[in-house]
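User: Hi! I have a protein structure encoded as tokens and I'd like to know what sequence might fold into it. I'm fairly new to this, so please keep things simple.
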């Protein structure tokens, strides 16, 4: 029998010193501004208090907690020093909370964010043993860690997370010198200007945006702001003539660095400048940490905490805590069967495509398909193109459809817009577009990306659905082993059919005794100047409880926070009057949004069950069985929606922002596992439910102005 484990360790409260709590008061401002500034200050304070005062400091909800008792006079002196820093300009007072008693969560927070600072250097040294190095040390796969605080089964605990990143093994300074590149060229010219850099000590990532001078001019300020003793010593030794640059993070925060303190961040776009194709495959395999290796890494992080008596010796498992671990049983409740052609009911597994070929799809809306084929990249493999088109035609006909290839072009067009307008004149139902291998939807530079340009011109005005295929995928269809080629081909064919209004499969029966499931997303765009984000309330995707896709509704209303106002929610959800509805939110529900939804319930006579779906942030679960989940508490769970492959599956965080009498955390979990089955563009079910899957992609289309039709019943994002 499988022994399921998770990277969570209980805290030994008897080893934690006496704790004291401190609260902050800000200067007068609006309530919304006060919440925002209080959050910023509480996050920043522990680090600065560690520099000013001995002891350990950590945030615990709305307090700062410490093992140091500080009197009023000392607090005034600390406040005076803090207010010299621009970050604390709104801080009016810090005061001790009298008669405060630690909560269970306080002990977890203090170990995760306070005591762990003592062993940070030791942990990082241990993780260096798991690094992978290439090209004589000029390229590295690093291992990073994070400790989070939890309360499980009413007891304090910590979770340990490990991730990997790719960086240059040499500093930005050495890279520039070896390649004869100036800092100005790195900032301004292709391909470097799109590259990101990383702090060589922390996980801070950003772009170099300017040079502010040399160390001689900036040394005093840099030494003063140095975050570690080691960095402070290095800053004092760096030569006077070394350049100092400004690094801007994704959220528009700016930091000054000498160029010898930065590494180049490597991704799938710039890796080709550091390693060859053969090495690249090895690198991507090394990024996927095997379960046994991951456990070893987590143990190396946990060991210093165990040695000091702060946490229990073993990660928690179903052997000792069977009531915390939940198996997906009965299977049909978690992964319900689906209905395909002829009313046949089958399990939604990888062999679903064979079942569809034998029995047909659930609902054929458009049997006669007019398809255009066009090449949007340089190629001379005309035989492969012809073969791939014939293969696609054969597969689509095998599912009972008629094909009319109304347009075929094997020459790269001079103008994408003109080519698509020409195709629209043929009244084709869908365009199958072939593009070059390095031009795909993951390109960082979306403005010049061929994929997005094709989508932009096809999804505006007279809508033309598209299926984009890279030449690399085309070759796999023709040359890979039969089973894998059929898998790729099946994904393409299902996508083509669904984008023409056809419905491959739905649940055999409605689920959970509800009427509908909805995905609610907010799309964000970073401000060009200043901090924070401008948010565009993206919209909803609505499914019947039998899994049938009903419609999407989108809006580009500009917001200044992540909360969707009541009037926009009413527009997006107004069709659900009198229904029982599960709403999946990509991320969390802000309190004001919950309040607005409750008001809507009254007006519409509707019942909403709110479920937060977070893609990352949970410790890994070691189990072979997808659907396994851990009950953190009655309103929160960590859920495995995929089976183990080369790496270790990433759990989803499932959370009910409030309790319901008739909808449990298990119901929330089932609403997610079920909806992973309904991806009509993939034979293999995805990790996320279709209600939130592709949220980022749809958001990007909105931000780039690619979508003109803000309401419809065709899943164009597949």
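Assistant: Happy to help. Inverse folding works backwards from shape to sequence: for each of the 718 positions I chose a residue that suits the local structure. Here it is:
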């Amino acid at each position: 029998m499988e022994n399921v484990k998770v990277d969570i360790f209980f805290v030994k409260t008897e080893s934690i010193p006496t704790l004291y709590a401190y609260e902050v008061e800000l200067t007068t401002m609006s309530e919304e501004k006060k919440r925002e500034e209080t959050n910023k200050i509480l996050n920043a304070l522990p680090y600065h208090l560690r520099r000013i005062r001995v002891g350990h400091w950590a945030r615990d909800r709305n307090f700062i907690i410490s093992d140091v008792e500080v009197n009023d006079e000392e607090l005034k002196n600390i406040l005076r020093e803090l207010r010299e820093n621009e970050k604390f300009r709104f801080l009016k007072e810090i005061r001790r909370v009298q008669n405060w008693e630690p909560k269970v969560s306080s002990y977890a927070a203090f170990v995760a964010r306070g005591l762990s600072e003592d062993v940070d250097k030791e942990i990082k040294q241990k993780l260096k043993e798991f690094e992978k190095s290439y090209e004589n040390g000029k390229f590295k796969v690093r291992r990073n860690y994070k400790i989070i605080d939890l309360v499980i089964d009413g007891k304090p605990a910590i979770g340990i997370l490990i991730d990997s990143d790719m960086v240059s093994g040499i500093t930005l300074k050495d890279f520039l010198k070896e390649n004869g590149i100036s800092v100005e060229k790195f900032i301004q010219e292709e391909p470097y200007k799109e590259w990101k850099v990383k702090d060589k000590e922390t996980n801070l990532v950003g772009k170099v945006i300017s040079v502010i001078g040399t160390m001689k001019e900036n040394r005093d300020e840099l030494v003063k702001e140095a975050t570690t003793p080691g960095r402070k010593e290095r800053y004092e030794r760096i030569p006077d003539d070394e350049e100092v640059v400004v690094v801007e993070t994704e959220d528009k925060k700016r930091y000054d660095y000498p160029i010898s303190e930065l590494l180049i961040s490597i991704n799938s776009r710039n890796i080709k400048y550091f390693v060859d194709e053969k090495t690249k495959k090895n690198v991507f395999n090394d990024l996927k940490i095997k379960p046994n290796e991951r456990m070893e890494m987590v143990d190396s992080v946990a060991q210093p905490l165990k040695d000091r008596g702060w946490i229990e010796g073993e990660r928690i498992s179903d052997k000792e805590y069977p009531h915390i671990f939940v198996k997906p049983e009965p299977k049909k409740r978690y992964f319900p069967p689906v209905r395909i052609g002829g009313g046949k009911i089958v399990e939604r597994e990888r062999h679903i495509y064979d079942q569809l070929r034998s029995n047909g799809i659930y609902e054929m809306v458009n049997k006669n398909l007019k398809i255009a084929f066009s090449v949007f990249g340089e190629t001379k493999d005309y035989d492969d193109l012809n073969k791939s088109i014939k293969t696609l035609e054969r597969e689509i006909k095998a599912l009972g459809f008629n094909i009319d290839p109304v347009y075929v072009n094997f020459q790269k067009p001079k103008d994408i817009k003109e080519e698509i307008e020409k195709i629209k004149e043929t009244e084709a139902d869908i365009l199958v577009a072939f593009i070059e291998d390095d031009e795909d939807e993951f390109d960082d530079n979306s403005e010049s990306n061929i994929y997005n340009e094709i989508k932009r011109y096809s999804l505006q005005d007279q809508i033309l659905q598209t299926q984009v295929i890279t030449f690399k995928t085309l070759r796999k269809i023709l040359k890979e082993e039969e089973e894998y080629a059929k898998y790729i081909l099946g994904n393409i064919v299902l996508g083509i059919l669904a984008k023409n209004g056809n419905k491959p499969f739905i649940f055999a029966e409605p689920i959970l005794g509800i009427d509908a499931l909805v995905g609610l997303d907010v799309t964000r765009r970073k401000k060009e100047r200043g901090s924070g984000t401008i948010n565009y309330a993206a919209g909803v995707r609505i499914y019947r409880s039998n899994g049938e896709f009903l419609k999407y509704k989108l809006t580009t209303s500009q917001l200044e926070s992540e909360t969707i106002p009541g009037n926009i929610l009413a527009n997006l959800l107004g069709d659900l009057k009198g229904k029982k509805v599960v709403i999946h939110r990509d991320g969390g529900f802000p309190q004001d949004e919950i309040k607005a939804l409750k008001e809507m319930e009254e007006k519409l006579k509707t019942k909403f069950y709110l479920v937060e779906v977070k893609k990352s942030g949970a410790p890994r679960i070691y189990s072979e069985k997808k659907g396994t989940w851990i009950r953190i508490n009655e309103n929160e769970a960590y859920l495995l929606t995929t089976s183990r492959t080369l790496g270790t599956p990433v759990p989803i965080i499932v959370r009910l922002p409030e309790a319901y009498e008739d909808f449990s955390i298990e119901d929330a979990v089932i609403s997610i596992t079920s909806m992973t089955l309904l991806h009509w563009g993939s034979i293999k079910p995805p990790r996320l439910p279709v209600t939130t899957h592709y949220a980022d992609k749809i958001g990007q289309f909105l931000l780039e102005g690619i979508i003109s039709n803000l309401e419809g019943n065709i899943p164009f994002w597949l």
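A useful reference point when you look it over: DSSP finds 21 helices and 33 strands in the chain. Feel free to ask if any position seems puzzling.
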